[in-house]
Give the backbone structure.
Amino acid sequence: MTYKYLHMRGYGDAKAMKDTLAPGVAGTRSQTIDRERTIDFMGETLRVYSTPSMLRDIEHTCRDIALEHLDGGEDTVGVRVELDHLGATLLHSSVEITARVTGVEGPRIQFEVDVRDELGETVGRAKHTRFVVETERQRRRLERLVERLRSSG
């Protein structure tokens, strides 16, 4: 196996990252639209897949794809999303979320995502960027942030 080197700003030395995470790597996730994933502000009969839920499901799909290619102690965090919610998806129906890696630059992973309903109609389309992080370094960084916030207030 070969490795690419990634360097995360503020994280010290470069670390080897597997090169199996490359453009073209893809995955699909099926998701049933349960009550929690729907809007409620237009009443019970108009419950449809909410945009924030679609975004969350897209993020989880992309993260799952990336995790298959990372080492233990590594994870990803979302840093950018461009989402078009193109159609309504009814409560209790399902969608297929297909994400494809379009670029890997150091710790940055870029995805293009299609969301299709049971009829095969595209109901969402997104571009999403995630960053690979070392979870222990991230934990220490967040602990320092908590301390800074406590000392400022």
Remarks:
- The CA atoms of residues 32 and 94 lie 4 Å apart.
- The beta strands are 3-6, 15-18, 26-32, 74-85, 94-105, 108-117, 122-134.
- The longest strand covers residues 122-134.
- The radius of gyration is 18 Å.
